[in-house]
Structures are given as C-alpha cells and as structure tokens.
Amino acid sequence: MFRLIDAFWKGVLIPLFQRPKRLQVAALCHRTAGADTEVLLVTSRGTGRWIIPKGWPIRGLNASEAATREAWEEAGVNSGTVDPKPIGRYTYNKTQRTGWSIPVETLVYSVPVDTLADTFPEAHQRTRKWVKTKDAADMVNETQLKTILRQF
User: Fold this and answer.
1) Which of 73, 74, 127, 142 has the smallest count of CB within 10 Å of its CB?
2) Is residue 103 domain-resident?
3) pTM here?
4) Is residue 71 in some structural domain?
C-alpha cells in the first residue's frame, strides 16, 4: 500500500504542482589566444558573480540569434557565424525580485568572437573578462556549466 501511495505522490501529485522550467539562451563566447582557447565571462547585474551572457528568448529571433543578441547587449560581442545547434544545456534556479526562485533551463550556443565593442548597452552594468576555459569553469557557480566549459 505504501508503494502505491508513494508512486502516486511522486508520479502524479508532485508533477501537477511543479512549474515547468523556463527557457533561456546563452552565448559561450570564445577566441583563440595562442595555443589556448579563451572564453568571455561577464558579471551578473544582481550579485556580481561570473556568468556567460544569457537571457530570455526574443520574439522574431531563433535561439542562436537570441544568444548572439545577448552577447552583444551584455558583453559588446561582435561575432561571426553561430551554429544553430546548442553545444550544451544547464539548469539553475533564478531568484526573482520577490525572493522566490524559478527553475531555468539554459541552452548554450558557441559564439566565435570577431571583435569587442568598447560601448554596448550594458557596459556600465557589467565587467567582462577573457579567461582560459579551465579557469572559467572554476569561476562560474553552475555545476553543469562548469562541465560544458571543461569539455569545450
């Protein structure tokens, strides 16, 4: 009897009351620096922690185009051709202004960087930094993003 109740609880009731994950898109901006690959990290506006540029989908743009737009707005990235297939995904809990957090699934797109602009929409709100991929993995908080960076 306990197994039946437990199965009903886990299989029916919990999924009914859970919100589905929201979707974001992210840009893993990169360049070659000698023999190494470097990735571009930016600080988040709220906590100042190191992240990759990311945001919500944008109406009229596909996911990779939206990720590229986020890279421009948050880091001043001018990029070349971006592969429309994500190179990975990670989940995290995004804290809202209300204090509640929502689960977010983030699709990550590889964005080769041609140039960086000195002025861009969020230049006064963020710091950006080029780092080697292994160092970047140590700087971000999200476990699954660490894995993506280490495998890149």
Assistant:
1) 127
2) yes
3) 0.84
4) yes
